[in-house]
Automatic annotation (TrEMBL):
It catalyses: prephenate + H(+) = 3-phenylpyruvate + CO2 + H2O. PROSITE patterns: ACT, PREPHENATE_DEHYDR_3. GO terms for biological process: L-phenylalanine biosynthetic process. It comes from Amylocarpus encephaloides. Residues 247-325 form the ACT domain. This is prephenate dehydratase. Gene3D superfamilies: 3.30.70.260, Periplasmic binding protein-like II. One of its GO terms (cellular component) is cytoplasm. Keywords: Amino-acid biosynthesis, Aromatic amino acid biosynthesis, Lyase, Phenylalanine biosynthesis.
Length: 343
């Protein structure tokens, strides 16, 4: 077993250990975030094929906790997770957010080197729309002319556009459930013409060649993961750490200023907003479910500011739902001089 495999190998968990469900397979970035968030010898880690499977395991009680990707600093929100938080069919009414984790993400291009490979030139391809294309931060370790298709999670494409535009322009892109699943598919491809965007750990575990390292556009590429559970984390009510909370709501789009009134509810109680997202209601075209994340906790609110803001919100919306309160890990990591865990 290699040093990387040993780093992420899970020791034997105690009998009947609580389960942490994560978007798998093993070696996914979500797996790495899960291992960085909990005591490995306390929990039993189980990979799930999809983010929906993680939510289902938590709602059913099969898993005590779940870890899912929520947003990336380069490519924005993970819509699959937002869709599940929207919960239009009320399948996950007991699922709440109880924590978060940050992981510095460095993408590798994984596959098989062609026989007699040569060093890549590093030439960028100009186009009419981009006559002077941005040059990627890294070069391939070999020629990539044999690559005919790429596999990765949809979120990764936007994090590596400069490299892909320079070296793999026009190559077929195939979405898969996770970056590590892409590595599994490439491992099974006997033609050697497939490649995956995944972690360096995935290369080690699946025995793939590293065709390029650190192909992400930005060195500060970071993904935030949410930790979910069933019901309320009572221990959070006694924590003195700085908090964040998340709510979802719908408004009457025919009412002028309805969204502004909701947002003004937070300003009126001096609560800082940290994130705003939206997804279609799928009831009426071009009307939306909004998600607002803000600093403060519904579970620990001695000043009453959160309660006051949410009472005000309720007067301006058609419906709303509290989705959880948790410790603000970005605040903690910033005080330590870093934006997240290292991968």
């Amino acid at each position: 077993m290699s040093s990387k495999q040993e780093q992420y190998a899970e020791p034997g968990s105690p009998p009947n250990a609580p389960i942490v469900s994560f978007l798998g397979p093993v070696s996914s970035y979500t797996h790495q975030a899960a291992l960085a968030s909990f005591e490995s010898d306390t929990y039993d880690y189980e990979p799930a094929q999809t983010i929906t499977d993680v939510f289902t395991a938590v709602q059913s009680g099969e898993a005590a906790l779940g870890v899912v990707p929520f947003e990336n600093s380069t490519n924005g929100a993970v819509i699959f997770t937002l869709e599940l938080l929207a919960d239009r069919h009320k399948q996950f009414l007991d699922v709440t957010v109880c924590g978060e984790a940050y992981l510095d993400v460095s993408h590798y291009l994984l596959g098989r080197k062609s026989p007699g490979f040569q060093d890549a030139s590093g030439t960028c391809t100009p186009t009419l729309s981009s006559p002077s294309p941005a040059k990627p931060r890294t070069k391939p370790t070999c020629d990539l002319k044999h690559i005919e298709r790429l596999y990765t999670h949809p979120q990764a494409w936007g994090q590596c556009e400069v490299f892909l535009g320079a070296y793999l322009k026009g190559i077929e892109r195939i979405d898969v459930s996770s970056t590590s699943r892409g590595a599994e598919i490439v491992k099974e491809d006997t033609t050697g013409t497939s490649a995956a965007i995944a972690s360096g750990l995935a290369a080690d575990i699946h025995g793939l060649d590293v065709l390029a390292k650190a192909i992400e556009d930005r060195t500060d590429n970071t993904t935030r993961f949410l930790i979910i559970r069933k019901g309320i984390d009572e221990a959070a009510a006694h924590s003195t750490a700085k908090k964040k909370s998340l709510i979802s709501f719908t408004i009457d789009h025919r009412s002028p200023g309805a969204l502004a009134q909701v947002l003004d509810s937070f300003r009126g109680y001096a609560l800082n907003l940290t994130s705003i997202n939206s997804r279609p209601t799928k009831v009426i075209p071009f009307q939306y479910i909004f998600f607002v994340e803000f600093e403060g906790s519904k579970l620990n609110d001695p000043s009453g500011r959160v309660r006051g803001a949410l009472d005000s919100v309720s007067k301006h919306v058609q419906s709303w739902r509290w989705l959880g309160s948790w410790d603000n890990k970005l605040e903690v990591n910033s005080l330590r001089g870093r934006g997240g865990f290292t991968s």
